[in-house]
Amino acid sequence: MGQGRQKIFLIDITMLTPCDVCGKKAERRNLAIHMRTHTGEKPFECTVCSKKFSQSGHLEIHVRIHTGEKPYECTVCCKRFSDKSALVIHSRTHTGEKPYGCNVCDYRSATSGSLKVHLRTHTGERPFGCTVCDKKFRDSGNLSKHLRTHTVDETYACSVCNKKHSNSANLRVHLRTHTGEKPFQCDICSKSFLTGSHLRVHGRSHTGEKPYACTLCDKKFSVLSSLKTHNRIHTGQRPFECDLCNKKFSASCHLRAHRLTHTGEKAFECTLCDFRCTTSGNLKLHLRSHAGEKPYECAFCDKKFAHSSGLRSHLRVHPGKRHDEFECSVCKKKFGEKGKLKIHLRTHTGEKPFECVVCNKAFVASARLTAH
Questions:
Q1: Domain C2H2-type: where (predicted)?
Q2: Rounded CA gap, 142 and 26, in Å?
């Protein structure tokens, strides 16, 4: 065979023998190795650390950890590796190749392991549990970082406020809260963020991407924490309890707002007048009175309103303009606005996402909560 020509080995599939346990077919000489995946047998032991392996090849790669041998070299940057598969993965950092694609969203990865971890953002699976507290994680790396929070090293203490951190990376991010540094900037709107993960979440406000879907209804969310809070509508779970009156809430922000009813504190203050209120949402609505902002526009005339309730009242002046184009799939009732159909559907699902922070009573629409 001439130099540079590749050898090709053909396998006669009629000569393959099926595994008695799982039915997988292999050549008879490889069947014994395959059976070790069922028996757990690991006959090859490292003489340095006593770790055991099912195949001699795996032991050979492992031994290089102890010897420092790295026979595989990258032809681009000369970085060396002890394992050929590690070199293949590394080479993708130069080529940009990402052969592993998510079947739920557009995410792609250079390794099958990274894709496996990513898929857990859709399934909600968190197989790595902390042995000290009840927290769970999608991958072992995040669990390792978390475990350091239970044994915080004095080395990673903030020089400004003395807050302690589990590693230098967390300390660096924390220091930005003192310096005001926000090194991660959005290419679209120029808004800046403390961390790359905060920027990624923000990016979804431009793309409309909502990778976290509720398995009980069709609602989707851009961040996992919002999905978790939403799921409590279905489960009825209220894990946040007031330590003064024992009332319980589905979200921590609802509990914070409720506590203000005990203290009488109105923490949100308008910088333009003397108006004060208990929630950031109410302050946002108030600020429209200064800015002249009117985001709610009538579909039948040019009139605009600062509040959705103002638009609803105004629509009564257009009695003959209803088009009835949005139909309920359950009872066939028709509506002139998509928003009204959305509210109506909650009468079928039982969903009441608007909760009073004082008495816990829930409503299908924000207007009913406001009236309450």
A1: 17-43, 44-71, 72-99, 100-127, 128-155, 156-183, 184-211, 212-239, 240-267, 268-295, 296-323, 326-353, 354-372
A2: 38
Enumerate residues 6+ apart whose C-beta is below 8 A from 331.
348
Residues 6+ apart with CB under 8 A from 286: 270, 275, 277
> Among residues 175, 181, 173, 223, which one has the least CA distance to residue 202?
223
Task: Answer whether 206's CB lies under 8 Å from 215's CB.
Answer: no
pLDDT score at 320: 64
CA distance 305 to 296: 5
Q: Are the C-beta atoms of 238 and 249 separated by less than 8 Å? A: yes
pLDDT computed for residue 321 by the predictor = 57
User: How many other CB atoms are there within 10 angstroms of residue 274's CB atom?
Assistant: 6
CA distance 356 to 136: 31
Cβ atoms of 347 and 361 closer than 8 Å? no
- The count of other CB atoms within 10 Å of the CB of residue 193 is 18
- Structure token digits, residue 239: 């894990």
- β pairing state of 276-277 and 268-269: antiparallel
Q: Is 310 left (phi over 0), alpha (psi -120 to 50) or beta?
A: alpha
Q: Are 336 and 326 in contact (CB under 8 A)?
A: yes
List the one residue out of 347, 346, 348, 366 whose CA is nearest residue 356. 366
- DSSP string covering 335-372: ESSHHHHHHHHHHHH----EE-TTT--EESSHHHHHH-
Q: Report which secondary-structure segment, H or E, holds 36.
A: helix 28-39
Kindly report, residue by residue over 242-256, the tens digit of the pLDDT: 888 888 888 888 888
Residue 121's nearest CA partner among 106, 134, 131, 99 is: 106
Write the DSSP assignment of 197-264 as a string of letters.
HHHHHHHHHHH----EE-SSSS-EESSHHHHHHHHHHHH----EE-TTT--EESSHHHHHHHHHHHH-
DSSP letter (8 states) at residue 215: S
- pTM higher than 0.70, yes or no? no
